[in-house]
Write a structure and sequence with these properties.
Blueprint (H helix, E strand, L loop, with lengths): L2 H7 L6 H11 L3 E2 L3 E7 L3 H8 L6 H4 L9 E6 L2 E10 L2 E11 L3 E9 L7 E9 L2 E9 L1 E2 L2 H13 L2 H11 L4
């Protein structure tokens, strides 16, 4: 039996460590299914976009999921930025380098390097007026390259991006 068929047939009995060794040995990058979501927030579009593209030293203060020591701006221009940012989890720093581009209503990111997700993954935030606030629509498409990436990808996929939505509500507030 090849390891893929064996894994499929005996998935319930395969420990995470055995699975990790097989995946590392295969050196494969596995897609995480795409997901999209919408969330309505209290802040108007110009403030939403403004916080999304604030690449000053305040960025880790604005975004509570970012760890200051993992944040670095490599290049910043009008409508674009090359940034490394991430989150320190217990025992591991999860970081990614992202090439950002934006307009008055859209922020796009392309992953160029990362600890748990492979280069080429993308996200896009579209922001439109909604009442006195905004509606943010996100499309997310990443490729896992580690077991941790697969686990986090599964959480995002199964929850429809709930951790990201929760962060948006924390930063921008719930609509009144």
């Amino acid at each position: 039996m090849d390891s893929t068929a064996d894994t499929a047939r005996h998935a319930a009995g395969v420990t995470c460590e055995v699975l990790r060794r097989r995946l590392v040995a295969q050196d494969e990058v596995v897609p995480v299914p795409r997901f999209s979501f919408r969330v309505d927030v209290r802040e108007p579009p110009e403030r939403v976009i403004g916080a999304m593209v604030d690449f000053s030293e305040r960025r880790p203060e604005i975004w509570p999921n970012l760890t200051a020591r993992l944040f670095r701006v490599h290049a910043l221009g009008p409508g674009s930025a090359d940034v490394t940012e991430g989150t320190a989890l217990p025992g591991v720093d999860v970081w990614e380098r992202v090439s950002y581009e934006w307009t008055d209503s859209v922020v796009r990111g392309v992953l160029t390097d990362g600890r748990i997700f492979a280069p080429g993954g993308t996200f896009e935030f579209r922001v439109e007026p909604r009442g006195e606030g905004s509606r943010i629509t996100q499309d997310y498409d990443r490729r896992s390259r580690t077991v941790l990436g697969r686990c986090l990808g599964a959480v995002f996929q199964m929850s429809g991006g709930a951790p990201i939505r929760r962060t948006f509500l924390q930063v921008y507030g719930r609509p009144d």
